[in-house]
């Protein structure tokens, strides 16, 4: 059977590894951390996954937390005004539920499953020369090492990478004990609060070790008041600071979180990512070619909650390309075609995510305002998170937006 080496045990590397393993490919995974280190480590994401990506996990029998994780049935969008008032507030329904399972739980569990099923795992963080050495004897090497250092072996593609700096300062806390809404029942909804000129605040019903939780997530415009994490406060101070920011910028959320507590002392995260698209094939010093997957080659700002979804879709698309290749060589031309097939979809995610970190243009403000009156718009917006390719014709194109609005009125 064909031998595949995968570097990186995140959503994409593990999903591809486990699904190839089930088809009896000989797969070896390189993971920088053991399951115990992942479980005992810091939270890594807010990891909302929508219907299509969840469907891939279910198809491969990897939906191990589906029964425990809260089902997310829609999106509540609120826009804050300058005086802390809510100037827009509506909900869109998802056609299929979404879920968020703490990656500490999921990645550790999937790694153990891969090993229990006889998969080879080597626990080490590899650099380029080690990778070059390790890759000998494999038919295919896939680098799925996320947005970190190793991805730099793939050349940046300036045509698709308009930014050279992070577009948001990120701060996350996983908590329990938040109060329900005092106005409408919004349990089971992702709450997407936008404060123009300041940033965004999301609340996501999720699950972690020990049960359900609320995942709260600030995205702050650089240099603004939410960009205040450079001193990397400890967990208690991190959460206290998030509460203070809620009080000022999204006071309707502050009321609900005042009595909440962190799920554990590793349940906070602060950071930033620079959106980038890279060329999918890199050459190692020995001349052999490796294929990049998911965040190793395409990083978007998490404002659109797409990275894990794209990682799952990349793993599924690469799986299909690998299987179709049968016993022909995984040469650089095939690698480029494999990426291009995924990129046909993923370019939509990049274009939409890059638009969402910029100030909203007038046609987007009109659409979001009209959505308060027209359910079709708000449902279409919510379901675009599952299929961002849909945004191109109406949300990202001013003329398309006008046409869509006039067809609805
Ligand atoms: C704050 C925040 C919130 C987010 N929220 C969402 C969301 O709600 N929805 C969504 O879809 N996406 C979200 N994302 C994005 C999402 O988490 C990532 O895009 C996704 O996890 C990427 O998956 P991946 O498989 O490419 O890499 P990763 O999940 O990053 O996994 C890479 C793995 O490779 C390992 N590794 C790295 N370097 C090496 C090395 N040299 N040797 C060996 N192993 C190595 C790492 O330890 C890691 O285990 C969020 C991201 C952030 C930062």
Largest sheet: 9 strands, mixed
Query: Could you name the CATH topology of the largest domain?
Result: FAD/NAD(P)-binding domain
Rg, rounded, reads 21 Å
Which oligomeric state applies? single chain
Query: Average pLDDT value?
Result: 97
Descriptive key words:
single chain, 409 residues, alpha/beta, FAD/NAD(P)-binding domain, D-Amino Acid Oxidase, Chain A, domain 2, 3 domains, nine-stranded mixed β-sheet, 13 helices, globular, binds flavin-adenine dinucleotide
Would you write up a description of this structure?
- The structure is a single chain.
- The mean pLDDT is 97.
- The protein is 36% helix and 24% strand.
- Helix 1 packs parallel to helix 4, helix 1 runs parallel beside helix 8 (307-324) and helix 8 packs antiparallel against helix 9.
- The strands form three sheets. Strands 3, 4, 5, 8, 9, 10, 11, 12 and 13 form a nine-stranded mixed beta sheet that branches. Strands 6-2-1-7-16-15 form a six-stranded mixed beta sheet. It has a two-stranded antiparallel ribbon with strand order 14-17.
- The termini are far apart.
- The protein folds into three domains: 3-44 and 104-163 and 274-356, FAD/NAD(P)-binding domain (3-Layer(bba) Sandwich); 72-100 and 167-271, D-Amino Acid Oxidase, Chain A, domain 2 (2-Layer Sandwich), CATH 3.30.9; 362-408, no CATH class.
- With 409 residues, it is an alpha/beta fold.
- The longest helix is centred in the C-terminal third of the chain and has 25 residues, at 332-356.
- Residues 7-13, 30-33, 45-48, 125-126, 144-146, 148, 150, 170, 172, 269, 273, 294-295, 302, 305-309, 311 line the site of flavin-adenine dinucleotide (FAD).
